Amino acid sequence: MIRHEFVGPIKTDRLALRLMTLADHDDVFEWMSNPEVARYQLYEPRTPLQVADHIAKVAQATTLVADGDFIELGVVLPATAEERDRVIGCIYFSLKRTDDLTAEIGWSFAVTHQGRGYATEAASAVLDFAFSDLALHRVYAELDPRNTSSVRLCERLGMRHEAHFVEDMMFKGAWANTGVYGILDREWAAHRRHTS
């Protein structure tokens, strides 16, 4: 049985993953309002008020026990001498089928911080958390196959391309495809051994 109250943060070599607060509003607004980032997300570019509402909602989501429970972690680039802490993106993680020890992972990052390995580092840390702390069996990601950056991220994480559903959802006024990538606990352990 999965029973976890997230307190965090999860730390990596360059990042910290923690629950977001309203103090992060301006950073989060930077990417959630950007049409380029929102292009493959289920939301349209968000207003300042929508971002504040979103942060208030996800800041309260800390329990991972039942199907549908989720956490959304801000990916924080720690302060340097020149700049304050910055929330440069987020990782979404949701329990989908607790009886089957299965969860879903997703991500979103500011354009200015893409292409530097931060998404790989952050998603890897959450997969470590999923398979070690929560003892899950399988984690998957659903994405728009046109989002080649997310496809490449799944591949870097060692995730297997499991499915390609054709025009299975109405997405922003048009039919869209869905790609599914997944990885099992033993596959993640082997991937970590191979890449460390």
How would the blueprint of this fold be written?
Layout: E1 4-5, E2 10-11, E3 16-19, H1 25-32, H2 35-38, H3 48-59, E4 63-64, E5 70-77, E6 86-97, E7 102-109, H4 118-133, E8 138-143, H5 148-156, E9 160-171, E10 174-184, H6 185-195
Parallel strand pairs: 7-8
Antiparallel strand pairs: 1-4, 2-3, 3-5, 5-6, 6-7, 8-10, 9-10
Helix pairs in contact: 1-3
Using brief descriptors, characterize the structure shown.
single chain; 196 residues; alpha+beta; eight-stranded mixed beta sheet; 6 helices; 10 strands; 34% strand; globular
Lateral arrangement of strands in the main beta sheet = 2-3-5-6-7-8-10-9
Low-confidence stretches: none
What does the average pLDDT come to?
94
The separation of the N and C termini measures 30 Å
